[in-house]
Fold this sequence. Notes:
Lumazine-binding repeats lie at residues 1-96, 97-190. By secondary structure, the chain is an alpha+beta fold. It contains three helices and twelve strands; from the N terminus they run βββββαββββββαβα. It has helices at residues 64-69, 158-163, 181-205, and strands at residues 8-18, 21-27, 40-43, 46-54, 57-63, 80-85, 104-111, 116-120, 134-137, 140-147, 151-155, 174-179. A six-stranded antiparallel barrel has the order 1-2-5-4-3-6. Strands 7-8-11-10-9-12 form a six-stranded antiparallel beta barrel. The radius of gyration is 19 Å and the shape is globular. The model has no long low-confidence stretch (mean pLDDT 93).
Amino acid sequence: MFTGIVEEIGEVTAVEQLTNAARLRVRGPLVTSDAGHGDSIAVSGVCLTVVEVAGGEFTVDVVNETLQRSSLAKVAVGDRVNLERATPAGGRLGGHIMQGHVDGTGVFLGRDENGVTTFALPAHLSRYVVEKGSIAVDGVSLTVAAITDDRFAVALIPTTLEVTTLGGREAGDLVNLEVDVVAKYVEKLAEAHIRDQVQNRHGGAS
Length: 206
């Protein structure tokens, strides 16, 4: 589990294309300070498993499913990425509960002088995003300031712009999105309830 509080900005130092996968090496002195084989680190919001740690860098394998759903398919050497270690049991929940399971990608549209930043939102994710609710953008826990069918806005404080990659985003850049997992569970439970209610009504009328 993660909370969306970025610990450091890392740098991709190597990208190796594998069969239906990719292997990345990322520089992150802080997150590797206590990391070992099998540990989880979120890379721009994507939960990945460490396969090797050496010299302040860690290596991860990214499977095809993750490449298809996230911006990591286009990552290149030199790219900056947000890094967060998994939250330890009993740790502070500084942002919101995140799994590191990216639901899809959005597009950075722009930011005004007050830090209000707008992203394009895929239609299939729109129903999970609500005003004043939580959303993760490139692994950063953010509060939704406004929402329409195809876009949402968040207000970014100067610190967030400074300590995450969001400060360097330009119009057209892809970002990883993870919606609130609670909303997805509620939808699943509600669907079953509504289906049962409809079946009961139809059964009573026959």
